[in-house]
Amino acid sequence: MDRIQFWEGWIFFIAFCFIIIIQLCYYLFVFSRLAFYKSKPKSASQEYPVSVIICGKNEAENLSIHLLGILVQKYTTSHEIVVVDDNSTDETKYLLQEFAKDFKDLNILELKQKAMGFTGKKFPLSMGIRTAKYEILLLTDTDCFPASENWIHLMQSAYQDNIDIVLGYGAYAKKQGTLNKLIRFETFHTALQYLSFALAKLPYMGVGRNLSYKRELFLQAKGFSSINQIPGGDDDLFIIKVANKYNTAIMIDKDAHTISEPKTTWHDWMQQKRRHYSTSKYYPAKFKWLLGLYSFSHFWVYPLLIAAMCFFRWEWVLGAYLVRLIVVAVIWNKTMNKLNEKDLWSRFLLFDIWLFLYYIIMLPNLFRKTKNTWN
Predict the structure, then answer these.
(1) Confidence band, pLDDT 50/70/90 cuts, at residue 286
(2) Domains in the chain, please, with CATH?
(3) Which pLDDT score is estimated for 278?
(4) Residues β-bridged to residue 86
């Protein structure tokens, strides 16, 4: 019996160390790229004409609160704000007409036809892009507002001769309560992955709340034609299709963030996350493997920690765990500071444990069918 327990202890310890090594590889070789990222100074400053695209359906309330922050941007070069009104039945039409009286850069595209063969917001977004005047497109949502008056300037400043895509950070407003902190941490953790992978020359997604790419890139890819039947995907499946290691840049300046109103109930947040996760099953095998291995290894950290400490020398197990914990703490601290989420760091251990539960909660969403509507 002692011999069996001896080998059981070693098996648990080796398995735990293997998981720790995988985690350290991700944090030291991938996520550290964002934690220690410094933008390269440009030899020359140039402002490009920009078309900001916003799509909304029955979003009069959000537009009345957030649109002004986009209309008053400090950007002297040619630009336009294209708001696509997708068959709204509320006061959206009249609200936009009032805004247009005072802001000549506001262009309204009112859609009255139903989207045939499209799901999600891909049809109104496609129409907005096709009617845009300028090559540089900057996308956001009706429930977002820029963190500063320099949002347009900073996002377009990431473009260089070889860059076609700029990935930004879409934060959520800081409010009281546990749910708000979990929403903001999940948003940070997602950004840690997609921004770090972009810096590692493996771009796979952006967020529609703060995303920029060139109009010609969209047209060359025939828009969303390859993903029309998939709910969502306009900000991850499309980026996977058109991004490569040469044409993608990031912009994480705090003044270049957008800020959205977070969900206020667990049910609404779960519904939102179900929609987001529904597209991941369409990712290419390479990204399924890379992202899946990270989540798999993170999930097993705490179960194997407990098992190894019970059946093996706890000092060795705890030592391996502390090495990982220190690396995670440093990477999260530096990245949270860059993304203006530094108030979350004091709870980093709780968030690390929370991810174990989060993966369990979210796993069924990888297989659940989602609705085809976007609003």
Answers:
(1) very high
(2) 2-36+285-366 (no CATH), 50-281 (3.90.550.10)
(3) 73
(4) 111
